[in-house]
Amino acid sequence: MINPQGLMIVLSGPSGVGKGTVRKAIFDHPDTEFEYSISMTTRNMREGEVDGVDYFFKSKKEFEQLIADDKFIEYAQYVDNYYGTPVDYCIETINDGRDIFLEIEVEGAKQVREKFPNALFIFLAPPTLGHLEDRLIGRGTESDDIIKNRIETAKKELEMMSLYDYVVINDEVDAARQTIQSIVTAEHHNRKRIEQQLRKHLLEVD
Ligand SMILES: Nc1ncnc2c1ncn2[C@@H]1O[C@H](COP(=O)(O)OP(=O)(O)OP(=O)(O)O)[C@@H](O)[C@H]1O
Ligand SMILES: Nc1nc2c(ncn2[C@@H]2O[C@H](COP(=O)(O)O)[C@@H](O)[C@H]2O)c(=O)[nH]1
């Protein structure tokens, strides 16, 4: 077997587009067999969030020590807080042949692309910028200033979508969930076919 590793699936997109909502729909679905990479962050816990489930919540000092110890696949400072993907669980999972699903912002996705060019990159986009603003306001978890900041960041993030393998518009949650699952299934088929062709070619060369 040439590539027995699991697939690294990166779902990115601006804050408020619905990444968390779509990700939850994916993981609630019985067909889903991916593992979820729980990120670390220094931001304050929101009401209803659970440490070790939604995020591993860390102090700034703890996070900076983890950076120094090279414990992240990627990390980024996003609107005054650190966010990062712990390296150990991701590597263990893909080496074990299981797919790992990362839900991260755009700067972090760029770092993943440099380290794991074979990962699958999916950008979740809003139908319009107005939808994004409405969703952030509707979620009611951030102050007006932070929402403004996130919208400004989103405008720059949306310019990066052409660098992704796929763009999925999150108009309706279940449709976005289904599209993402179909993309992953198709990607597995493609990679398997390429691997078989490569193996056949190598045997012919021998
Ligand atoms: N397709 C949709 N239609 C309408 N509302 C949606 C849709 N998807 C998500 N939402 C709502 O938009 C808000 C933001 O969604 P969510 O928190 O999942 O976004 P996010 O991209 O994960 O944000 P962040 O990056 O800040 O964590 C939530 O209130 C959610 O219920
Ligand atoms: N680069 C990374 N970005 C991450 C990670 N985990 C989450 N995120 C992204 O941060 C913003 C803000 O999240 P919020 O929970 O404060 O709303 C959002 O775009 C997340 O997708 C990570 O490990 N690395």
Automatic annotation (TrEMBL):
Give start and end of each Guanylate kinase-like domain: 6-185
Q: Where in the cell is it found?
A: Cytoplasm
For this UniProt record, the keywords arranged alphabetically read as follows: ATP-binding, Cytoplasm, Kinase, Nucleotide-binding, Transferase
Q: What CDD domains does the database record attribute to this sequence?
A: GMPK
One matching Pfam family: Guanylate_kin
* The EC number(s) this enzyme carries: 2.7.4.8
Q: Which GO terms describe its molecular function?
A: ATP binding; GMP kinase activity
**Which Gene3D superfamilies does this one have?**
Guanylate Kinase phosphate binding domain, P-loop containing nucleotide triphosphate hydrolases
- Catalytic EC class: transferase
- Reaction equation(s) it catalyzes: GMP + ATP = GDP + ADP
Q: Which GO cellular component term is one of those annotated?
A: cytosol
The residues that the entry says bind ATP are 13-20
What InterPro entries does the record tag this protein with? GK/Ca_channel_bsu, Guanylate_kin-like_dom, Guanylate_kinase, Guanylate_kinase_CS, P-loop_NTPase
Sorted alphabetically, which HAMAP family does this protein's record hold? Guanylate_kinase
Q: Which NCBIfam families match?
A: guanyl_kin
User: What is the stated purpose of this protein?
Assistant: Essential for recycling GMP and indirectly, cGMP.
Family to which this protein belongs: Belongs to the guanylate kinase family.
State the name under which the record lists this protein. Guanylate kinase
